[in-house]
Structures are given as C-alpha cells and as structure tokens.
Amino acid sequence: MRSLPLPLALTARLSPVAVLATAGWALASGPFAPAPAAGHQPVQKTAGQSPSAPSSTAVPKTYAAAPAPCASVAEKTVRSLVPGAKTAGKEIPSTDSKLRRTCSWNALKGYDYRWLDVSFEITESDQAAQKEYKERIAEKSGGGDVSGVGDAGYSVVNLTTEDKQQTREGTVLVRVSNALVMVTYNGSDFETRKAPSTDVINTGAIKAAKDAVAALEGGKS
User: 9 in a domain, yes or no?
Assistant: First the structure.
C-alpha cells in the first residue's frame, strides 16, 4: 500500500511535544524568627510552656512524584487507540521528571493516523491543583464534565482543517488530589481527508485517562 506524506500540521505534531508548563510550584521554607530588637526584654515563659519553634506550614501531599507515564496506559488500550504504535511509547524529556512526565504514542497505519499523549503533573497541594484545573478548563471551553474518574474530570473535542485535511483532537483533564492527569488524543484519515467522529475521539481519550488515573492511584505509597 502506498504511503502518503503527512500534512504540515501533523508533521510538526510528530516533534516532541512541550511538557506542560507550570508556574509557582517552588517550595518555600518557613522564615527564621527575627532576633529581639535592642532594648526589648525577652518574653518570660510560664511553667509548662515549651520553647518556641518555627511553625511548619508544609501541607501533606498525596502524591510526591509523577508515575512512569509510558507504563500508565494498558497495552490493549494503546493497541486499540493507536493501531501500529509501539506499546512501549516514548517519554518526552522533562525539566523536572519528579513533577512532570509525559509519554507519547503515534502511528500511521495505512491511511489512518493516530496520536496519543498522557501527562502527569504534581502540584504542591490539593488547592494548587484545583486552581490549575479550573484555569485550564476555562481555556478549553465547549467541553463537559467526565464522571467517575478522579476528583474532577473534563473533556473537550475540537475539529481543525488544514489544506482540506481534517484532524479531530480530544483533551481530557483529570484532577486527583494534588495531581493533574492530561490526555490528548487525535486522528486523521488521509484517504478520505476526514477525521474520526467526535464520539470515537472522546471515548478513546477518556479510556486512556481512566487507565492513567488508575496507574496513578495504584502507585500511591
């Protein structure tokens, strides 16, 4: 069967995807207590009082590190969603692999092209993850809630056309405590120049997200 060149947009898609950037995740230690000012008398302690110590504001985190992303999606799921792809996947280099990790699978089988990304991000607290989750779904309007996965789930599907070639892409974002799981799944048919249906892409993205969340929760210490 003859192979066809990928459209420009999809060729660019095959380059390593940028790992989702996060801001403000640097952990800050508590400040040291200042020395008493000159002329001030030290506070006398009554019997039974313990010496003062720096207060700890650290919030316990459910997840301290991102799991291995390429092992987070079942092989049968990969074979179903990305026919012809190597089930081992390819991990994308990260600036901090403890907090952010991404794996990608892609393949062109005949005229059908599929791409799947699965990413994990670990934030400093549940509150930070909630804030990030809300901001991201606000940027991707037009979708809907996904029930039965994590603490909150959201999915959206969009269709793009370039040079008369359609590509349909689905995104699923899930929050699990202080962790975020994001799945991107898209596809094109180079023979018909059409894209897979919304249901095919959305269902596939949600399936991969459920696998990833299960892997995250199963690896919790």
Answer: no
Average pLDDT rounded to a whole number, residues 65-82: 97
Range 154-176 average pLDDT: 97
pLDDT of residue 210: 98
Cα 47 from Cα 134, distance rounded (Å): 50
Q: What amino acid occupies position 59?
A: V
CA dihedral sign of residues 126, 171, 14, 115:
positive
Query: In this structure, is residue 17 part of a structural domain?
Result: no
- On whether residue 142 sits in a domain, the answer given is yes
Q: Are 63 and 178 in contact (CB under 8 A)?
A: yes
Q: Are 145 and 88 in contact (CB under 8 A)?
A: no
pLDDT in tens, 11-42: 444 443 333 333 333 333 343 344 444 444 44
pLDDT at residue 206 greater than cutoff 50: yes
Domain of 189, CATH number, reads: 3.40.1000
pTM of the shown model: 0.73
* Both tokens assigned to 2: 């003859």
B/e letters for 134-149, b = 16+ CB within 10 Å, e = fewer, are eebbeeeeebeebeeb
The parent domain of residue 81 ranges over 61-218
